[in-house]
Amino acid sequence: MKLFTVFPHLLPSIKATLLRFVRREGERRITVQSRDWLGELSPESLKSRDTRLLLAVEGKRLVGLFAVSDCGLGHAFLVVDRRYRGRGVGKALAARMCRLLPKLYVRVAIDNEPSLTLFRNLGFQPVKASIGPTGKPTLWFAFGQWTPEDLHVSAP
Fold first, then answer.
1. Rounded distance, CA 150 to CA 18, Å?
2. What does the pLDDT read at residue 156?
């Protein structure tokens, strides 16, 4: 498996493939708002220091995607092909994303135990609880140089 950062000039040629992958493998955990954001993501937006798109590829097959805007304060979603789950694809993408960004926030519904375990094991700190866009209780996790001010919460 290889990991790739999507460079802005490549985005237009692969965006349709990425959207199909997210719809097929996201299992209703990826919100419409996040899919719409990916669909509207422009090469100019991808030049932002706080926005990244990482892919995991096995041979010629896309097996994982981690998309982040505004260090996760905007959008952050991780999708792994169901046939490749449990093989470290999500962990590899998340670990690489942590090295690319100075800080990273993710929101995980509390019924998504695999993602909760993944981010805890990578050293993310739970920093906030809220009701997510799907109406489920959700934990915010932070990594790196995060600040409570980013989340409008009191310091832990």
1. 29
2. 45
